[in-house]
Amino acid sequence: MKTALIGAGLAIIGLVAAVVGILSPQALLELLDRVAPVLGFVIGLTIVADLAAEAGLFSWLAGIAARFSLGRVWVLWLLVVVLALLCTIFLSLDTTAVLLTPVVVLVARRVGASPLPFAFTTVWLANCGSMLLPVSNLTNLLAVHALGSPHPLDYAALVAPAAAVSVLVPLVAIAVRYRRELAATFTPVPVDAAADPVLFRVSAIVVVLLVPALVTGVAVWIPAAAAALVLIVTFALRRREALRLTLVPWGTLLFASGLFLVVAAAQALGLARVLGDVVGTGDSFGDLLRLSGGAALSANVANNLPAYLALEPVGGSPLRLVAILIGVNVGCIVTPWASLATLLWHGRLTGLGVEVPWGRFALAGLLITVVALPLAILALTFA
C-alpha cells in the first residue's frame, strides 16, 4: 500500500510536468515505448511466479534442497544459494525476494537451523546476483536499450566478470559471519507432496520452458505473457479461486511508472548535466569506480530505478553503463528503500516473525558495498 501511494504521488508529479509542458507529448510517447515492454514483462513474470508458488513448485524445490543436504546446514545453505541465484537470474530479483524468502526461512526452521543466514542470502543475492541477464533486474532491461539491444548472451558476456565478483563477496561475508550456525547438523525431513499434481506439473513445465525462452533474444515480455496465459488457463480449470486481481502487481507498476515519469521530467530540466559534473567521464578504473560509487549513493538516497535512469545519459560507453548497473544493483543494499526487492523481503520476514533491525542491515550492506564495488569494477576493467 505504501509503495502504491508513493507511486501515485510520483505519477501525479510527472503528469503535472506533462501538463505544464516540461514533458512534451513526443517525450511521453518515447518513454511509453521504452517502459511498456518492461512493465509488461513484470506483469507476466509476477503472475507466473505467484501461480507457480501457489502450485507448490518453490516449496518443493526448497524441500528437495533440504532432503539432499546430507543433514548438514552448510550444504543446505549452498543449495539455497544455487536456488536463489537461478531464481534471481532467470525470474528476477523480486521473485526471489517475494517467493523464495518465506520458503527458505520455513525450511530452515523445519530443520532447526537459524533463519538469518538464509534470509540474508536471499536479499543479498536478489540484489547483488541480479547482474547477469537483462531479465534479472528492471535496471538491466532499461540498460539493454542504451547498450544497443544486444543478445542476452552477449550482454551476459559483457557483465559476467563483475557479476561473479558481486555474488562472491556477500557469500563470503555470510560464510564468515554465520560460520557457527552453518556448521550445525540436522535430521533430514521428507518432502511434502503437491496438493494438486496437475497444477504442479504444468507449473514446473512452464517455468522450465520459460527459462531458456527468456535468453533467446525475443522481447522478454512475449514469453512471460505466454507463460502467464498458460498458467491462468490451467488454474481457471483446476483452482479458479487462486485467480485474483492481486496477481497483477499494481503497487509495483504504479511505483515504477511514477518513478519513470519523474525522472523523465528531471532529465528535461537538465539533471544529466548536473550529474555529469559529479560522476565525471572516462573509462579508467578510477573513473568507473567514481561513477559506480555515485550510482550506489544515488540508489541508496532515492531508489535504484530512478538512479539508473538519471545516470544513463552520462554513461556514454558500454563499460560506463555497466559501472552504473554495478552501482545501482550491487550497491543498493544499504538503505531499505534503495531496492523494491529489499522492502518486499523485509515485509515477508516481518510476517514470519523474523526480526532484522535496519541498523544491522545497513551496516552489513555498507561493508559489502565498500568491498564489492571496487572488486567488481576491477573485474569489469581488466577482464
Keywords:
mainly alpha, ArsB/NhaD family transporter, membrane, single chain, Cit_transptr-like_dom, 383 residues, transmembrane helix
Structural class comes to: mainly alpha
Question: Could you describe the largest sheet, including whether it forms a barrel?
Answer: none
Poorly predicted runs are none
Helix content: over 70%
Mean pLDDT: 87
Q: Given the structure, what is the number of helices? A: 18
Overall number of domains: 1
Radius of gyration: 20 Å
- Give the termini distance in whole angstroms: 43 Å
Annotation, overall tally of beta strands: 0
What portion of residues belong to β-strands?
under 5%
Based on Cα principal axes, name the global outline.
globular
Order of helices and strands: HHHHHHHHHHHHHHHHHH
What would you note in describing this structure?
By secondary structure, the protein is mainly α. The mean pLDDT is 87. The protein is 75% helix and 0% strand. The chain has 18 helices and no strands. It is globular, with a radius of gyration of 20 Å. It has helices at 2-19, 25-54, 57-67, 73-91, 93-110, 116-128, 138-146, 152-177, 179-182, 197-213, 221-238, 250-268, 271-279, 285-301, 304-311, 318-330, 340-351, 358-382. The protein has one domain (23-382). The longest helix has 30 residues, at 25-54.
